[in-house]
Design a protein that fits this description.
about 110 residues, mainly beta, 7-stranded mixed β-sheet, about 0% helix, globular
């Protein structure tokens, strides 16, 4: 299974971030797979953002829940992350992950 994140790279404060995780080599509806978004701010540890399960249900980090939305497109085998009201503190490398599989991450910088 391969995961590939993609996104805008640079986003202005207060804007909404949209990231894509394209999955190949396996289906996002495979049982017991939880397609997770994780981020790592510079110089800090990993922070769990949330996931969308194989069933389609979602769970988000309570501290980010009001600003985040995770969805999917089964036909495209793709998972999405939207995060609104971005702040410079949201600058991080964003990863897509499931089971033992990780994408390479995509840098997101929030700056005017």
């Amino acid at each position: 299974v391969q995961l590939q994140e993609s996104g805008p790279g640079l986003v202005k404060p207060s804007q909404t971030l949209s990231l894509i995780c394209t999955v190949s080599g396996g289906s996002i509806t495979t049982k017991d797979y939880y397609w997770t978004w994780i981020r790592q701010p510079p110089g800090k540890g990993l922070e769990w953002i949330g996931y969308i399960a194989y069933s389609g249900s979602t769970t988000n980090n309570p501290s980010l829940k009001s600003r985040t939305s995770i969805s999917r497109d089964n036909a495209k085998n793709t998972v999405y992350l939207q995060m609104s009201s971005l702040e410079p503190e949201d600058t991080a490398v964003y990863y897509c992950q499931a089971s033992t599989y990780w994408g390479q991450g995509t840098q997101v910088t929030v700056s005017s």
